[in-house]
Amino acid sequence: MFKICFYAKSAPRKRDGLYLIMGRIIMDGQRVQFTTNVYMDKTHIAYINAPIRKSVSSDLYLIMKELIHIRQQMVGIYNRIRGDQNFSANTLINVFKKERVLSDIYFLHSLKEIIADKKRQGVSRKTIEKYTLLSNRLQSFILLKYKKTDLSVNEINDTFIVSYRRYLKRTFQYSQISLEKLMQLFQSARTAILEMHSVSLAKRIA
C-alpha cells in the first residue's frame, strides 16, 4: 500500500500565525513524515486533503494546487524507483527533497555562469565558442519546444535529451560525429552544473 496525506503542525508560526503543512507517507507498514514548506491559515486547514476547486479563494487555490503538485511528484518518484534495491520510504523522501531543490536551479542560467567562469580562467577562445554555441542551441530548443527561456535542472531529463538530440539532427543536419561531440559537451556541462551546486544542494537537503 502507498498513500500520501497532509496535516498541519499543532503550533502556528509565531510571526504570522500560519501553520506549516506536513506530509505523511504510508508505505508497506512504514510511516514517514516530511515538510512541504507550505504554510496555511487556520481557516483553510480543512481543505488540506480536499480535491482542488476554483470556488475557493485565490490564495487557497494556489496552496491546494501546490499540495496536489507535491502529491503527484511523490507518486511519480514512487513509480519510478520502487523497483530499486533497498527502496524505502526514506529513500523516497530523499529523492523528493533533491528534486525539489533542483527545481530551483535553472540550467541555462547556470551554463552562462560556467561560461563566464571559463572566460575568467582564460581558457581558449575555441572552447568558449563551443560552450556559447551549446548555450545558443539549447536556448533555441527550449524556446521552441517548451515556450520558455530556461528550464530547471531536474527538467533536463532523459526525455529532454532524446528530443534535443533529434532537434539538433533535424534542424542543423549535423553529421553523426559532430552530433556526438556536441552531446558530449552538453553532458559535460550538465555534470559541471550539478557539481557547481552540489554544496548548496547538500545543505538544503540535510
Record field, number of beta strands: 3
Q: Beta-sheet strand percentage?
A: 5-15%
The poorly predicted ranges are: 201-206
Mean pLDDT: 87
Distance between the termini: 27 Å
Report the C-alpha radius of gyration, rounded. Answer: 21 Å
Question: Helix- and strand-based class?
Answer: alpha+beta
Strand order of the main beta sheet, please?
A: 1-2-3
Task: Enumerate how many helices there are, as a single number.
Answer: 7
Helix fraction by DSSP (H/I, runs of at least 4): 55-70%
Described by strand count, sense and barrel closure, the largest sheet is: 3 strands, antiparallel
Shape: elongated
The secondary-structure element order is EEEHHHHHHH
What does this structure look like?
The protein has 206 residues and is an alpha+beta fold. 58% of the residues lie in helices and 13% in strands. It contains seven helices and three strands. It has helices at residues 58-81, 89-102, 107-121, 125-146, 158-172, 176-196, 198-205; strands spanning 2-8, 19-27, 30-40. It has a three-stranded antiparallel sheet with strand order 1-2-3. β2 and β3 form a beta hairpin.
